[in-house]
Every structure is written in structure tokens, then in C-alpha cells.
Design brief:
2 copies of one chain form a homodimer. By secondary structure, the first copy, chain A, is an alpha+beta fold. Chain A has 11 helices and 11 strands. The longest helix of chain A has 19 residues.
């Protein structure tokens, strides 16, 4: 498959025109596209501009509201509960993390929940915004059900990712962004297309038996990482994002790709804690740097060249992509150009 | 190995006399023993009265201060930083979680850090106190280094456990309490004594090679659960408990059993979030019950009789032990009776 490389501005300009043509305000469209481009720049191309076609499809089907009126339903000095009005998850979440940061700076810490929302991109984007402000940022979202509980065989839990970002000094910030499933469902699809087996422990078949057959796995369920521990974390993320915010949870959360007859109605949860509750930001960053350097410079396991901190691989990737530009594969370029044509936009990638 | 069963009061009375004889006030001693007995009643016998001999040893060696003057170093409406004055971790942590609960009830959420502390028992005890008050309770502690970073081979991270407890209604509260290592180091010791191999993935040898030889594993390092994900969580727990509180962290954290020449100087971190920031506690509990029942009543994997929620096994165990009493093995009974004799206490178990 071929690919082309773009400067971020080119992708941004193209993308924001698409969303505006779909009925979104320029402000909302710019917000979404800033997040998508930042995601591509972090090397997470699965969650960047490649997702525009499915977002556009859902808007056209009336499943995502292009002009959401975001409402704060409940608020105090340390918290807020936001109704995303079934808009793009990015829009409500940008607002939510901004409120969370502002309240945490004033009150020492804050938590903001979002309900009635849709896919919001990558967790890291929101946590990293908090870390840039000297806060410890935490982001949780539930997703459509893909995973069986530990000991079960029904798809009752999403891949429910969580991210914690922590400011460092000279070193890059720590950004732990992870799904609670062993792998993404996309990896089963890739193996099925290639006719390859999957490793034991990734998934079970519809009877709840461990399987190495990706087709049977697709009919069954993904497994949580680390057995009961990952299962517990997936439950926790669903509680914070879904149960506590008043969003759908468990098997009721809608799928971005799968459910083309109903809104997702998922939820998100953000927390920020001020470092300065405990010590000066300068001292903390110095301590963080010393921890990071101690780990990075320690002895490596056999066959390992370098020890990475959580998020460091993505950090190095983003430094490279800011220099080189964003590479998009030709299948995605064609989908985006077809979408532009379909919407009557003259721009092409 | 034989064992004997005791009513909780008998163990409590014996234990609090031991700590008082070691120089602790009745109040502090009662606090520690309440926590130890609650831990035994949860079926976590490794962290209950069985730990009294090592605590006593450290107090006698001057490594734990029996009469700590606990100080609040920094405080605002949502946070506090506490100096444990090198006392038993339980004493400062009981104070910390009480402050955290009080502040969270008033301000919506709170975080309390503890530095200059020692082993505090099980994380679940503290998180569960918050959950009983209608709060989401989170507890983190760092421990002495047992684990290599992902890709490394030096022991730079503790088993760094975390616990989140969430109130439910008719159903037992959710209590996810887990170490970030695959297994406890004790399991390597058991395998070594029995001359058995350990499963691949538990540990590496001193060269950073995967090993199934428990002796080589003891000379090497435990591995984080779930590869880079568990590694990331272990780093996170060390940051919250150690870096942020001003405690020792990474390889500098002292070992309860191993370092008999210096205090542990570890740290703990507690958070509490009020459910009522987002919805009424009654509605939330109802939603929690429906999530729990949906999972528990779902189809089981092959060979599985029952799906458990996080913490449910311990909950069922505690219901049983409250009826039946606490079983203590004879080796521990002998150690405790020897300690009593050594301290000139006439009581025996």
C-alpha cells in the first residue's frame, strides 16, 4: 500500500472543511481537527484523520449531532457534569478538560464527567493538556462491548482505555495510555484477513474457550490484559465513565463502527490533581527527571537496546513527525477524497 | 501445618498488648490492631497478625518509631500532606484517609499524601472506608524494589499495589486491590522451598533472561503483570506515593523484611471522590447493582462456575470468617507467643 506525507496544516485545512460542510460550526470543526492532527502527529494514525469517514457517515445518518448545545448539568468548585448533546466526543471533552484544569488550578483538584457523548479520539490528548499545566491528568472513557469479564464469555465490557499524564522537567512527560484489553479488536481482523493464527490469551470463542483462530475470536470476545487485574480495571473505567456520569455502560454502550442505527451514548471522565498541593512544581519535576533517568540508564534485559518510559515511544515519534510531516496511507487518502467529492468540496489530498 | 481458630476479640486483645508493651500508646496500638484484624477477617492472612513479629522486630531495632508525632505539613480544602514521623504506616494512613474522607465530603473530592512512613497493611482497608461513606476511594503505596522495568533487569520498582473501592447498593462494594507485579515475591520463595519450577513470565534472572528456576528468579527480579501496561502502572503508583509525597521512591524505598539497618521511608497516596458531584448516591448505587448483576448473571466460560466482581471473593470470605473466626497457623502462633514471652506479657494465644 502506498502512502503520502503531508504538512499538518494541509491536513487540518482539508479536514475542517469536511466537518463544516457536514454542518458543524467553524469553531467546533477546528477543535475536532486540532485533536485529530495532534493524534496523527503522535503516530496514532488509527485515531487521527483516518477516522473522518466513519465520523462523517454517522453525522450523515443523524447518529452524531453536528451542532451540539453542550450543557453543564451540575457543577461545584471541584467538579462538573456535562451533557455532550450527542455531538462529537472531542468537542465536549475539550470543554470538559478545560473546565477540569481551571477548577484544579483554583481548588487543588477536580473531576469532570461527560455523558451522552461519542468517540473522543485518544485519551492521551486530554491528559497531556493537564500535564502541560503542571497537573496530573487522568482520562477515562468507556467503549462499545468487545471483551468478556474474567470467567465469562459474553461481550460485556469495552476495551475501556485509561490515560494518566504526569509532568516532568527536562525529560518528556510520562504518558501512560492503555486499553484494558490485551489487544485492539483490529488485530483480530488483520490476522483473519491474512489467514494467520493469533497468540493464545488474546481472545475466546463464542463458547468461552481460548482460541487461536481469529475468525472464531471475532465471533467470541477479546480478553482483558493480565486476567482478573485487567478485568478489574475495565470495570473501573466503565464505572467512572459510564455508571457515574449517567452515560450508557456495559453492553449498552454503542459502537462507533458497528451500531449504525443508534447513537453511542458513551461517557468520559477526567481528573486533574495539582502537584502544588504537595510540593513546588519545580521540585517535583526535578524528582521526576531523576526517576526517569534512573530507570532509563539501568541495565537492560538480554536483547533490549533501550528502556522506554510510558509514552516515550510516542513522544519520540511526534518529534520525528513534526519534522517530517504526517504520512497517510492511500486507502485513507482515497476515502477522504471521495468524501470531499461527495460533499461537493473542491479540495483534494 | 496445624492451625487454630480465634474470635477476633481474642486476637485484638493479645495484639494490642504487644504493641503497647513495645512503647505505643493505647490509641495507636488499637488503631493498628483494628486494621490487622480486619485484614485477617478479609482472608488476607499474609498481612494481618502474621506481620506482628516483623513490626515488633523493627520497633525493637529502632527502625520504626513507636511514638510518632504525626504532622500535617501542607493543607488546603482538597488536600493534605502528612509526615508519618516514621511510625507504623497504619497510624498515619488511618489519619490520612479520615482527613481525605472529611475533605471530600465537604469539597467534593480530596487527595492526601503521606511521606516518611512504613508498611501500612492492605490498600483495601483504606479505600473501603471511603466507599462506606459514599465516596470512590483510591489507595496507592510504593514498596521496596522487587521488580524490573519493562526491558530492564535491575530491581527498580516495588510491587506497588493500588486499590479502588466503589460503593454499591444491595450488592457488595466493588474493591479492586492488586499488586502491579505478576505475583508476590513470596510465591518464588514457596516454589524454591518445594523445588518446583515457576511459570514463564513471572520473573527474570540476574541477566534479564526469562527463567522458570525460582532460585534464579529470587536473584533476579519479578516482572510487572501485562508487560508494558503493568510496568506503567507500577511507575504511576511510585510517582503518586513516592515522588509526589516527598517519600523515597524506586530503588531507594526500604524493605520491611530485607532492610534491617534503615527505616523504609516509603509513601502512600489516598484519593476520594464524592459520587454526589455527579448524581444522587441512591441512583448511583442502583446503577452499580444493575452493572454487577448483569456481569454476574452472564454466560460463563467453559469450566467456570461463577463470575466474580473485583473484591467479591474477599467479601464472601469475610462473611464466612465473621461467623467462624480467624484461623492462624501454628508457626505464626508460636512466633506470637514467643514474642509475648520475650516482652514479658502473660497472655498466650
Amino acid at each position: 500500500m502506498g502512502e503520502k506525507t503531508y504538512i499538518p496544516d494541509k491536513l487540518f485545512e482539508f479536514s475542517t472543511k469536511v466537518f463544516q460542510k457536514l454542518g458543524m460550526t467553524q469553531e467546533d470543526s477546528d477543535t475536532v481537527c486540532r485533536i485529530l492532527i495532534k493524534t496523527d502527529l503522535r503516530g496514532i494514525s488509527s485515531h487521527g484523520v483516518a477516522r473522518i469517514p466513519i465520523y462523517a457517515k454517522r453525522i450523515k445518518l443523524g447518529l452524531i449531532n453536528p451542532t451540539p448545545q453542550i450543557k453543564i448539568l451540575k457543577e461545584n468548585d471541584t467538579s462538573a457534569l456535562i451533557d455532550a448533546d450527542n455531538g462529537m466526543g472531542h468537542i465536549a471533552s475539550e470543554k470538559a478538560i478545560n473546565i477540569c484544569i481551571e477548577k484544579a488550578k483554583k481548588s487543588g483538584m477536580a473531576a469532570v464527567g461527560v455523558r451522552n457523548s461519542n468517540h473522543f479520539g485518544i485519551n492521551a490528548y486530554y491528559s497531556m493538556k493537564a500535564a502541560e499545566e503542571g497537573l496530573i491528568g487522568m482520562t477515562f472513557t468507556n467503549t462499545s462491548p468487545l471483551m468478556a469479564p474474567f470467567g465469562g464469555r459474553e461481550r460485556l465490557l469495552g476495551s475501556n482505555p485509561l490515560c494518566i499524564a504526569i509532568p516532568a522537567g527536562e525529560e518528556p512527560d510520562i504518558v501512560l495510555d492503555m486499553a484494558t484489553s490485551v489487544v485492539a479488536r483490529g488485530k483480530l481482523e488483520v490476522a483473519a484477513r491474512k489467514g494467520m493464527n493469533i497468540p493464545e490469551g488474546w481472545a475466546i470463542d463464542s463458547e468461552g474457550r481460548v482460541t487461536v483462530d481469529p475468525q472464531k475470536a471475532l465471533e467470541g470476545a477479546l480478553l482483558p490484559f493480565g486476567g482478573p487485574k485487567g478485568y478489574g480495571l475495565a470495570v473501573l473505567v466503565d464505572i467512572l465513565s459510564g455508571v457515574l456520569t449517567g452515560a450508557k455502560f456495559g453492553p449498552d454502550a454503542g459502537s462507533l463502527f458497528g451500531d449504525l442505527d443508534r447513537p453511542q451514548e458513551i461517557g468520559h471522565f477526567f481528573m486533574a490533581v495539582s502537584v502544588e498541593n504537595f510540593m513546588s512544581l519545580e521540585t517535583f519535576k526535578h524528582r521526576m527527571d531523576s526517576m526517569i533517568q534512573r530507570i532509563r540508564n539501568s541495565k537492560k534485559a538480554e536483547g533490549v537496546d533501550r528502556i522506554y518510559m510510558p509514552g516515550e515511544i510516542e513522544y519520540l515519534k511526534s518529534k520525528e513527525l513534526i519534522e517530517k510531516g504526517i504520512t497517510v496511507n492511500e486507502k485513507v487518502i482515497k476515502e477522504l477524497n471521495d468524501l470531499a467529492e461527495n460533499l461537493g468540496i473542491s479540495d483534494r489530498l
